[in-house]
């Protein structure tokens, strides 16, 4: 338990230096927060909001937020779940995506969860691993390791590992085969369950609105095209616009019109192909900074 400290600014914990740091800072900058002196201090104040960042090891973030030392935190769901922190998850943010998976030597005898009975499993996530195995009626010995878990079977320290995986390259390079997933993870924005004053609560509402708008904008593109006037209804059928597209007359050209609208990025190419088939031309696509619906 960490002693809670009084702080009047909204205090947000982020990873000091690691895989989540740049993406979290990009997100905060993307929603309009400006920071001075980043990386020289452990506490960094925002220039334009009553917000400060506390730079921590990711392992410590759930507890700092739970105990109210920080009001919010950006941290992997893996750390939040491992620490069993009493916090609320405000948003799931789709970066830092990975899975906690069990892996064992490629040509060894461990192939299924049941084969782990009585075996030694090296992991930095003993709580998640043990709970998962217990749910499957398996008891194994947890060998708690804080880094380089993947080399433990070769060193004879463990029979299998439960480690974070994203591409799977590290396991492969160490002669390990991924067997099954214990936990799927992504970065989360978490909030303390401690009561917050009105000013902080309203700042959090603003922050969430900005994050949601930023997320929607990142998943969308603004599209402008010219098309024959006669193709308008076909094009309207193709573009699942959030509202009616803007249709503009072209000077000195009665046959063609300009159409502006927003499309979901994940359907970008399919929509583009259909638009071209429908007769659209001079298509311009632009990223969107923010979108408040
Ligand atoms: O110093 P601090 O304690 O803050 O940092 P850390 O070293 O504990 O964590 P860091 O920076 O490595 O990771 C921070 C968070 O990023 C994790 O808690 C996860 O939420 C998330 N994340 C996403 C990952 C990975 N992907 C990941 N691939 N964390 C670690 N890895 C490691 C994994 O442990 C293994 O060593 O990458 C290797 C596997 O990667 P692949 O691509 O070879 O499968
Ligand atoms: Zn860590």
Describe the SSE topology.
Elements: E1 10-15, H1 21-30, E2 43-45, E3 51-56, H2 61-66, E4 72-76, H3 77-82, E5 87-105, E6 120-123, H4 126-135, E7 141-144, H5 152-155, E8 160-165, H6 169-173, E9 176-192, H7 198-218, E10 220-228, H8 232-238, E11 246-250, E12 253-264, H9 268-277, E13 281-287
Parallel strand pairs: 1-3, 1-4, 6-7, 6-8
Antiparallel strand pairs: 2-3, 4-9, 5-8, 5-9, 10-12, 10-13, 11-12
Describe the structure.
This protein is flat. It folds into three domains: 10-95 and 186-217, D-Maltodextrin-Binding Protein, domain 2, CATH 3.40.190.10; 98-185, Periplasmic binding protein-like II (D-Maltodextrin-Binding Protein, domain 2), CATH 3.40.190.10; 220-287, Alpha-Beta Plaits (2-Layer Sandwich), CATH 3.30.70. The two termini are 41 Å apart. The strands form two sheets. The protein has a nine-stranded mixed beta sheet with strand order 2-3-1-4-9-5-8-6-7, with helices on both faces. A four-stranded antiparallel beta sheet has the order 11-12-10-13. The chain has helices spanning 21-30, 61-66, 77-82, 126-135, 152-155, 169-173, 198-218, 232-238, 268-277, and strands at 10-15, 43-45, 51-56, 72-76, 87-105, 120-123, 141-144, 160-165, 176-192, 220-228, 246-250, 253-264, 281-287. Helix content is 27%, strand content 35%. It is built from nine helices and 13 strands. Strand 2 and strand 3 form a beta hairpin. The mean pLDDT is 93. With 293 residues, the protein is an alpha/beta fold. The protein binds phosphoribosyl ATP and zinc ion. Phosphoribosyl ATP (PRT) binds next to helix 3, strand 5, strand 8 and helix 6.
């Amino acid at each position: 338990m960490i002693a809670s400290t009084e702080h009047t600014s909204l205090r947000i914990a982020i990873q000091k230096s690691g895989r989540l740091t740049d993406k979290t800072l990009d997100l905060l900058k993307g929603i309009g927060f400006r920071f001075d002196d980043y990386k020289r201090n452990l506490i960094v104040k925002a220039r334009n909001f009553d917000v400060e960042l506390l730079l921590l090891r990711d392992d410590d973030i759930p507890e700092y937020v739970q105990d109210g030392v920080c009001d919010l935190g950006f941290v992997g769901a893996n750390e939040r779940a491992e620490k069993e922190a009493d916090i609320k998850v405000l948003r799931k943010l789709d970066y830092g995506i990975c899975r906690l998976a069990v892996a064992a030597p490629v040509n060894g005898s461990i192939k299924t969860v049941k084969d782990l009975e009585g075996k030694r499993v090296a992991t930095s996530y003993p709580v998640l691993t043990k709970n998962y195995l217990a749910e499957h009626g398996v008891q194994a010995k947890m060998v708690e390791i804080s880094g380089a878990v993947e080399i433990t079977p070769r060193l004879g320290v463990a029979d299998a590992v439960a480690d974070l995986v994203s591409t799977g390259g590290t396991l492969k390079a160490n002669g390990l085969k991924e067997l099954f997933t214990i936990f799927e993870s992504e970065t989360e924005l978490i909030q303390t369950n401690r009561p917050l004053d009105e000013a902080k609560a309203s700042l959090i509402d603003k922050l969430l609105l900005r994050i949601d708008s930023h997320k929607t904008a990142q998943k969308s593109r603004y599209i402008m095209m010219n098309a024959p006037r006669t193709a308008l209804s076909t094009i309207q059928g193709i573009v699942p616009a959030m509202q009616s597209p803007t249709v503009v007359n072209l000077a000195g050209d009665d046959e063609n019109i300009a159409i502006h609208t927003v499309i979901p990025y994940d359907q970008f190419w399919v929509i583009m192909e259909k638009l071209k088939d429908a007769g659209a031309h001079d298509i311009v696509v632009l990223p969107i900074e923010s979108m408040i619906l």
